[in-house]
Automatic annotation (TrEMBL), chains A, B:
It comes from Celeribacter ethanolicus. It is an enzyme of class 1 (oxidoreductase). The keyword Membrane does not apply. It catalyses: prephenate + NAD(+) = 3-(4-hydroxyphenyl)pyruvate + CO2 + NADH. Gene3D superfamilies: 6-phosphogluconate dehydrogenase C-terminal like domain, NAD(P)-binding Rossmann-like Domain. Residues 3-292 form the Prephenate/arogenate dehydrogenase domain. This is prephenate dehydrogenase.
Length: 303, 303
């Protein structure tokens, strides 16, 4: 599909893309670059890509598809660095969790004749780094395709086919809508999970050991979410500020209403609220994003 | 271990106890009662216990161990009802998620010569009802043993051995400490999950269909938590009010600090906070309450 693909950044997503591209046979040569020497060494050692380069410009030379797989805050500088080395007609894409600010940061650097099309594969684990990738990460997960205004339709279609070949389901979205949807289903839930884990850790009346020991039933799911990469999440909240603050505002408003129901002993309000949420859960099972089976098939098995 | 065991309430926990008792061979006859005719019919149909009774007093007749497996708010009335029918020396226990208020509600009704010892098996799934039980639910999960002051040590030990035979790990706790620990690791995380799911459902700018479709990565775990039994959770918050409100207060305080960091663009605060939570997650994996493996072994497989 693409004769040469360059991966800039060699973490969980880029590593999984390399393995999924090999599985699907959709790339001629896969080059890779990571800022850290240690990451490049590891990638070479495990053969994560066909050729690890010591500079980003070397990696993107003659590449037909360039994937920016770096934290959202680093997209602009990386794009500025590689722009002069792009071959004519090259397609640049990213895999960031935020789209409006990535487009703002990247588009001014895209040279005449090259293309930029944002993507967001909604898949991940709590692990990061070059050893964390696996070919099945994107299987049956959504990949949101977010083209800028006036994007070349042929190149957008080709990139969609590429993500389909990697196992993902495709949906197109505009940048603003993408950012608010992700604030709801991903960004704010992560922030909340981080907060709850932080509260437990701070609490004097309950020891860390107790929190860890008795973490089944609720808290454990929070800790799993809260173990994701700190740099990635910092950038998400700094760059999707507006949508995150909007959803957070709604969240605290509702939480305060439930808190008041607890304080005043208003059992009906609590019961009604808890009943309503069951329907959403059923919808998720029906939509195939989770199963009702004992083992959820999360993580390395994809799902 | 106990010649006759009576289960009052025939939902997930009681049903699983019956199946686990049979597996372990620790009960002579198991009787059961549920308030709802439909539940009793189902329990009879699937042979969940040895004998389904149409009244609670019939079920507890000649029982050596009586298990109150009803919502926390129903413990007092049920105890008052069965108290006159208890045989001398009978041990009554409960499986509620809250302990201080259960002891307050139940202890005044315990007849001279009978014993009450609270327990809290920390295991569950998002399912409820007589068909949801399975023998492995308690395997390698914690069961907190919460005796009232002055409890008979021999009977407490025997009940601990009983729960061990059902597969659980045992830890003793006093009622106050139990309630604050559970507020942190279970009750407040559940409330937060319910709230987040409610926010998503309410939001006009994002459709329910989108929330359901793109629920991987964060939100899905929340919906799973938020699908638990509404009546049980209502009673938890009404009866563990003090501890829940204390932890909620801490939570909103920390959440506001992170919200301010997002608003002011303070990336260092966010990064530091997100880094700190990783350690807790590692501790949980090391403590064996979760695994690092692809399939978490949650739900019906126990774990």
């Amino acid at each position: 599909m693409y004769n040469r693909v360059a991966l800039i950044g060699l973490g969980l997503i880029a590593g999984s893309m390399s393995l999924a591209m090999r599985r699907a046979g959709v790339a001629g040569e896969i080059t890779g670059y990571a800022r850290s020497q240690a990451t490049r060494d590891t990638a070479r050692e495990i053969g994560l890509v066909d050729r690890v380069c010591d500079t980003a410009t070397e990696a993107v030379k003659d590449a037909d598809l360039i994937v920016l797989a770096v934290p959202v805050g680093a997209m602009g500088p990386v794009m500025a660095e590689i722009a002069p080395a792009l071959k004519p007609g090259a397609v640049v894409t990213d895999v960031g969790s935020v789209k409006k600010s990535v487009l703002d940061a990247v588009m001014p650097h895209i040279p005449e004749g090259a293309h930029f099309i944002g993507t967001h594969p909604m898949a991940g684990t709590e692990h990061s780094g070059p050893r964390s990738g696996f070919a099945e990460l994107f299987d049956n997960r959504w990949c949101l395709i977010v083209p800028p205004e006036g994007a070349n339709e042929g190149e957008v279609k080709k990139l969609e086919d590429f993500w389909s070949a990697l196992g993902a389901n495709i949906e197109r979205m505009d940048p603003e809508h993408h950012d608010i949807v992700c604030a709801v289903v991903s960004h704010v839930p992560h922030l909340i999970a981080y907060t709850m884990v932080g509260v437990a850790d701070d609490l004097r009346r309950v020891t860390d050991q107790e929190v860890i020991k008795f973490s089944a039933a609720g808290f454990r799911d929070f800790t799993r979410i809260a173990a994701s990469d700190p740099t990635m999440w910092r950038d998400v909240f700094l760059t999707n500020k507006e949508a995150a603050l909007e959803i957070l505002g709604r969240f605290t408003e509702e939480l305060f209403a439930l808190q008041r129901a607890i304080r005043t002993g208003d059992g009906d309000t609590l019961h009604d609220y808890f009943t309503r949420t069951r329907a959403i859960r059923r919808g998720i099972i029906e939509a195939g994003q989770d199963t009702d089976a004992p083992d959820f098939g999360r993580g390395k098995k994809g799902g």
